[in-house]
Amino acid sequence: MLQALRTQKPLVHCITNFVAMNIAANVLLAAGASPAMVHAEEEAGEFAAISGALTINIGTLSSDWMRGMRAATVAANEAGRPWVLDPVAHYATGFRREAVQELLALRPTIIRGNASEIIALAGGVSQGQGVDSRDPVEQAEASARLLARTRKTVVAVTGVVDFVTNGERACRIEGGSSWMPDVTALGCSLTCLVGAFAAVNPDVPFDAAVAALAMFAVAGEQAEANADGPGSFAWRFLDSLAAIDGNSLSKNARILPL
Amino acid sequence: MLQALRTQKPLVHCITNFVAMNIAANVLLAAGASPAMVHAEEEAGEFAAISGALTINIGTLSSDWMRGMRAATVAANEAGRPWVLDPVAHYATGFRREAVQELLALRPTIIRGNASEIIALAGGVSQGQGVDSRDPVEQAEASARLLARTRKTVVAVTGVVDFVTNGERACRIEGGSSWMPDVTALGCSLTCLVGAFAAVNPDVPFDAAVAALAMFAVAGEQAEANADGPGSFAWRFLDSLAAIDGNSLSKNARILPL
Amino acid sequence: MLQALRTQKPLVHCITNFVAMNIAANVLLAAGASPAMVHAEEEAGEFAAISGALTINIGTLSSDWMRGMRAATVAANEAGRPWVLDPVAHYATGFRREAVQELLALRPTIIRGNASEIIALAGGVSQGQGVDSRDPVEQAEASARLLARTRKTVVAVTGVVDFVTNGERACRIEGGSSWMPDVTALGCSLTCLVGAFAAVNPDVPFDAAVAALAMFAVAGEQAEANADGPGSFAWRFLDSLAAIDGNSLSKNARILPL
User: Fold this and answer.
1) ipTM reported for the complex, 2 dp
2) How many domains is chain A partitioned into structurally?
3) Burial profile C4-23: b = 16 or more Cβ within 10 angstroms, e = fewer
């Protein structure tokens, strides 16, 4: 899949938050994809239809942007393009709770969130504070399975050890770095990378999500080796993403089927 | 205070400008806080009420965002949460001058600005150009004292040597680096960090402002030691922020009471 | 021109996209200019009139921002200030195609784009995908000359070897680095730097564009020498921009008149 991504350089349409825009675009470029940030209602639908995949992130939501997300998502569905939902802190306010329910009803191909977000999305009680998870991934696994089955989607929960399920199959992915939560918007960027892998493998979104998470985990582990803090980790992480190829990803990924 | 910040990891609600969003979030994470950027009128008030502190920055202002700032500020006041105002280039246009007067009337707990901004805010004649100060901090000290007394607030003026006053007490803070003005939005990020310290010390905002400025000054000095320019300074600065603990902050801070 | 830029530190009013805002501001600061991002219709015109130059980039366009761009551009023209247009992916949607035609009619002093953008702007058939060019610069040279003559403007096409023309004079600029397309928004940042040089040399925009492109090419080449990937390239590039002076720019620039 990574070789396909590098060869095809798929156009990934990202409607993400203001904090994530720059780092997410750099993550996609380092991985080999072609990112485009297009949010206006006037063009988001038209743009989604010419893209390989769409990613939606509600981090810095507003009513204007919600209109663009709606237009893009509907168009992606009509064009048969995969789309990924990142329900940032959806439990925090009424505005967010409503938005995420509407987006869920538009049938995301994949949902990527932290443990608190996934637990709350499945109807459980989470300990999340603002945009940060305060629940371990293991506690979100049952919620993720439930959400995947009821919504007929793939759910990826990221944290110390990641978890991916389509309701039937499931696996854990080890790796990454303890610096990752201290670099803002890496989770949001991962959502965009999941979109890039879905663009080159639209028929098996479970595999696409696993591949993207594995690539992040391997790059995180490699970047940590020489990092002295979150600042030096961030640029080393981009260097590692760019340096990974199909062989090193296969060799270093620690994917544990359940 | 820094130990409290690291232990409590306070949720800091930031409504800041598009240039600052990413670096401000990274600064807060490196220092130990939990940043969240939430600006929409539909949820800014609700979010401010669940946060430890609020910071407002008018750098890339628009009428939409002004509505969110108003909602958040009113809610922070009602919930008894401290809030920090960063009046970026408020003297530059009529739109900004009106906005800052309205925000001032909502009684910020702390104001953080450069010398030109503080002089103009106190009614003086500044030499500011765009977002850059062209006045030395020393020339803003009288303006800062006046502003603090008339508005019953804490005023922090940052530059080569910083100055903080609540109208009665005052001190200068030395340190930092000559690279800091060449990294965009570090001042805006400092405003957010002031909010983080205010969240863990809401009753003594003067001390909170001093602590945040001292942490920035120490991290700046340490980052400069190995930097070759503004690019390498920026990531070293984040590494330094993350590495500072209560002891090294106390040992290295140069706070001069007046 | 670079010495004038460092001495005058011109105020450059940038209305650019959300992805580019931070890196563009850092590029301008490293080069010696004073960037300001001001987009709201309520103040964009007033701000353009007090700035040395204006730059307009449609990367993350919306109707609201289009109103600010219109106000700023009209005011820049009335005040006799140079302004630079960056027509990001203008061929991708109807919304963008309309916006760019309206902006073209407002007579930009300089247009900076990639080959696909310039070919499409001159009425040709481009291979562009999203925001990425898929045409070599050489294939855009005739389009650039045509566009410069018919629109009475300077056109700068950037890629492996850059090309600048005012319809009569033309030159190529060699240098740069193969990492540059893998760092997001460097092209957008270059547009802002073109604005900075135009601010200190408003009467000869051809020379201003050539100088900005040459400075980017030299800094790119120097940054590549020690970079291991796009992450380390990005901060080294800022260090290089800040370290270049008039002498080293003259010595290392490879400008080939045609």
Assistant:
1) 0.97
2) 1
3) ebeeebbbbbbbbbbbbbbb
